[in-house]
Design brief:
alpha/beta, Rossmann fold, Arc Repressor Mutant, subunit A, 3 domains, 9-stranded mixed beta sheet, 3-stranded antiparallel beta sheet, 18 helices, 12 strands, about 45% helix
Length: about 350
């Protein structure tokens, strides 16, 4: 099992994902990357000699089997960079995490409609009310709200998502041995127990140190098609996330606030520079060109499916597949398959993408 080497890399606190992925890109094999010799590392273009030497020194103290058992014994699941379930949007940022540890129901998340909501920790009642209002206008749909599980706007965004029947992703800046802030312990539990997923790139024992919060922000924006900023001073973490959103080529949106509030200074700077102004959920849907489906619509679509349709759905549950792949996996003959695929498209259960490939909707 090669996944233990991804975990082993991440357990070394002094190296980061960019180092791990540089080695993986060179060797095309994570086990070979982890066990590379000093001479092997010298052949990697652009790899810092100092970093390579440091890695070799630290690696010899790591037992991959033990590193993995420390994770699994805590009931923590994980996605490695080469896993087909690794979120597509996140994989395509400049510095993706080499591994994502998680708790919660991964299969419940619609990674094709992810919206980040960020803002100040010390936030006004106005901003919280605005976030609650806009998220309530998306109630019971297939949109997933992404935020950083910090106090302030993050907490409001996650809470509003849960109260309005939306799934939510919390991205934390530490390992799972820590709950930060402690006031959000109940929110952590709610997300883990049916309301979504909590992600972190950090090994369980890594503390929520100050420098990890800006690093975490690239994952919040990287998982999302767009970022909504509710309140942000010029030097806030929310503004860092806003800038990352633009660097990642995603849609940046802002809720306007009172001009007398210093926490809206960053908002108006972003709006002047071309961010989309949002006063209702319809502004978000228009900016992202999304058509939303309610959970009731999604349930109706799946209440009346036959045995053949069920086989097809199972085949494309994780990723889109072509007609030949579906035939091979399900054993359904070509003519029957085409008839059922057409019927399922009309029902809105699946959609055709990239030629003859099919994927689940929602």
């Amino acid at each position: 099992m090669t996944s233990k080497y991804w975990v082993a890399f991440s357990s070394i606190e002094q190296i980061d994902s960019s180092f791990t992925l540089k080695l993986f890109d060179h060797f095309k094999d994570i086990e070979k990357a982890f066990n590379a010799s000093s001479n092997d590392l010298k052949n990697i273009e652009g790899l810092s000699v100092k970093k390579a030497e440091n890695f070799l020194k630290l690696r010899d103290k790591v037992n991959p089997e033990k590193a993995l058992s420390e994770v699994t014994n805590r009931g923590i699941k994980y996605l490695t960079f080469d896993d087909e379930r690794y979120p597509y949007m996140l994989k395509n940022i400049d510095n993706p995490p080499s591994i994502l540890y998680y708790k919660g129901d991964l299969e419940s998340i619609n990674f094709e409609k992810t919206l980040a909501v960020v803002g100040s920790r010390r936030t006004s009642k106005y901003a919280k009310d605005a976030v609650n209002l806009i998220i309530s206008q998306l109630a019971n749909t297939d949109i997933c709200i992404v935020s950083g599980l910090a106090s302030g706007i993050d907490t409001s965004a996650h809470t509003a998502a849960i109260e309005n029947g939306l799934k939510t992703i919390g991205v934390i800046a530490s390992g799972f041995d820590f709950v930060y802030p402690t006031a959000n312990a109940d929110l952590y539990r709610k997300i883990e127990n049916g309301s979504g997923v909590i992600f972190t790139e950090y090994y369980p024992t890594f503390e929520p140190l100050k420098f990890r919060f800006p690093q975490r922000n690239r994952i919040v924006s990287g998982l999302s098609y767009g970022t909504l900023v509710a309140e942000a001073s010029i030097k806030s973490g929310a503004l860092i996330t806003a800038n990352l959103t633009l660097e990642q080529g995603r849609e940046l949106m802002c809720i306007p606030g009172l001009i007398t509030n210093p926490n809206t200074e960053g908002i108006y700077k972003l709006l002047k520079n071309g961010a989309t102004l949002v006063t209702s959920a319809s502004d978000i849907l228009e900016a992202l060109n999304w058509e939303i489906k309610t959970t009731e619509q999604l349930k109706i679509n799946l209440t009346d499916i036959n045995e053949t349709e069920e086989k097809i759905l199972k085949s494309i549950e994780i990723e889109e597949k072509g007609v030949d792949e579906i035939m091979s996996e399900t054993g359904i003959d070509f003519d029957t398959l085409l008839i059922n695929l057409t019927t399922m498209e009309l029902k809105g259960i699946i959609e055709q993408v990239n030629g003859d490939r099919y994927k689940r909707v929602g």
